[in-house]
UniProtKB/TrEMBL annotation:
Residues 1-28 form the signal peptide. It comes from the Eukaryota. The gene is LOC106164033. GO terms for biological process: regulation of synaptic transmission, cholinergic; sleep. This is Uncharacterized protein LOC106164033. Pfam families: QVR (PF17064). The chain crosses the membrane at residues 134-151. Keywords: Glycoprotein, Membrane, Signal, Transmembrane, Transmembrane helix. It comes from Lingula anatina.
C-alpha cells in the first residue's frame, strides 16, 4: 500500500473510532418508567427516588397509524390532579416527539387532569442525573484520536 493511502486509511480509522465513541449506545433514550394513580406506586411520586423505580433501556413507543415500536428521543414526566376526582397521577415514560414543557389541562386514559408535562432529551432525565457524563465520553474520544494520530 502506498504511504499516502496508508496515511488516509489511518485518518479514516481515527474519524470512525471517534464517531463510534461519541455516538455511544444507539439512538433510543433510557427513561424512568412508572405510573402511579393516587399513590398506587409511591416510588413514582415526588420527591423521586430512582432506587424505587425502573429505567427502561432503549425506550421505544408506538406511533399513530403505524405498526411496531420506534426509538424514543425524549423522556417525559406527567404530574396532575383529577379535575373532578382530585386523584393524583404521576407518569414517567418516554416519547418519540417532544411534548415541550407545559402546564394546564390534559386527558390521560379518558380522565381530565390539571397539571404539568415536562420533556427532556438525555438518558434518565425525567428525574435523575445522567450516569455517564457527556464530557468524560468526549475526553476519552479525544485521547483515543490523539493516540491513533501519533501512530500515523
Amino acid at each position: 500500500m502506498a504511504p499516502e493511502r496508508d496515511s488516509n486509511m489511518k485518518w479514516i480509522l481515527c474519524v470512525t473510532a471517534a464517531l463510534v465513541l461519541v455516538a455511544g449506545k444507539g439512538d433510543a433514550i433510557d427513561c424512568f418508567s412508572c405510573v402511579s394513580a393516587n399513590g398506587s406506586d409511591i416510588g413514582c411520586h415526588d420527591p423521586f427516588n430512582p432506587a424505587l423505580s425502573r429505567v427502561e433501556k432503549a425506550c421505544r413507543q408506538g406511533m399513530e397509524n403505524r405498526y411496531g415500536l420506534f426509538p424514543a428521543s425524549y423522556c417525559i414526566k406527567i404530574k396532575g390532579e383529577g379535575a373532578v376526582s382530585k386523584k393524583q397521577i404521576y407518569v414517567r415514560t418516554c416519547a418519540i416527539d417532544t411534548m415541550e414543557n407545559q402546564c394546564g389541562e390534559f386527558q390521560f386514559e379518558g380522565v381530565l387532569y390539571k397539571g404539568c408535562i415536562t420533556t427532556c432529551k438525555t438518558d434518565s432525565c425525567n428525574t435523575a442525573p445522567r450516569t455517564t457524563p457527556f464530557w468524560s465520553s468526549l475526553l476519552v474520544t479525544v485521547i483515543v484520536v490523539l493516540v491513533l494520530l501519533r501512530v500515523r
